[in-house]
Design goal:
239 residues; two-stranded antiparallel ribbon; 11 helices; 38% helix; 7 strands
């Protein structure tokens, strides 16, 4: 029997041996969102040790779920990780798990789950680049209610550009166009669709900046859309 296996021929058991180990569904989520480098995958699971992430990726590779691919134009600078055909086939599984969690897991969310680094990385993924203005826009988030953990930060900077969207944990040195301040719990509720942006900005979140930025922020970040209804929990495979 493989270590951690169930010694059952049942397909559920065989699938669980690969997918249901700790952190693995979240690693798959990152890969399904298009993250391919080790560092970018880790930014989506910052409380996972880098050693364990490396171990999980190697195991997924051994199981035929992911494969190493050379960096395009830079094969000497390491490799990237990419889902195989078998890995792509797991999208439906992760999507279903996420939908179930949205419907039945809300009461399990506690203050310890309000990881600001995870939230900002998730917001980065929601940005509609085609809707952004031609110039760079910098949004600073000043969040309260952050749990005491190594990945919790009060300040984050979201740098919005059509060709690149990034999250900075330190001041990137660009002029700030807009400041969003308030409790992280409120922003998480908006992200999950439990509270709409207009209600949040009237009651708990302050958005300071010129109208052409503050008035479009929800559209640029697609906070006017609801995950699981208007936006997929896991994006479909690009055709």
């Amino acid at each position: 029997m493989a270590e951690g296996g169930y010694s059952q021929f049942c397909p559920v058991a065989k699938g669980a041996e690969i997918v249901a180990t700790r952190w693995t569904p979240l690693v798959l989520r990152e890969l399904m969102f298009g993250e391919m480098s080790f560092n970018d995958i880790h930014r989506g699971v910052p409380r996972m040790s880098r050693a364990l992430l490396s171990e999980r990726l190697r195991q997924l590779e051994s199981d035929g779920i992911v494969a190493k691919v050379p960096r395009e134009g830079n094969p000497d600078k390491g490799h990237l990780w990419k889902l195989t055909e078998a890995g792509e086939a797991l999208r439906e599984v992760i999507e279903s798990l996420g939908r179930w969690g949205l419907a039945h897991g809300r009461r399990r969310v506690t203050g310890d789950d309000y990881d600001s680094t995870v939230l900002m990385w998730a917001l980065r993924r929601r940005v509609d680049r085609e809707a952004l203005p031609a110039r760079r826009v910098v949004v600073r988030f000043d969040l309260s209610g952050i749990p005491h953990c190594r990945t919790g930060r009060r300040l984050h900077w979201l740098v919005l550009q059509r060709d690149l969207v990034d999250v900075c944990l330190k001041d990137p040195g660009y002029p700030v166009d807009c400041i969003v301040s308030g409790g992280i719990a409120t922003l998480v509720d908006v992200y999950l669709g439990h509270l709409n942006w207009r209600e949040a900005t009237h009651r708990a979140l302050a958005v300071e900046g010129p109208r052409d930025v503050a008035g479009n922020l929800d559209r640029w970040l697609r906070l006017d859309r609801v995950v699981g209804r208007d936006l997929p929990i896991v994006p479909p495979r690009a055709r």
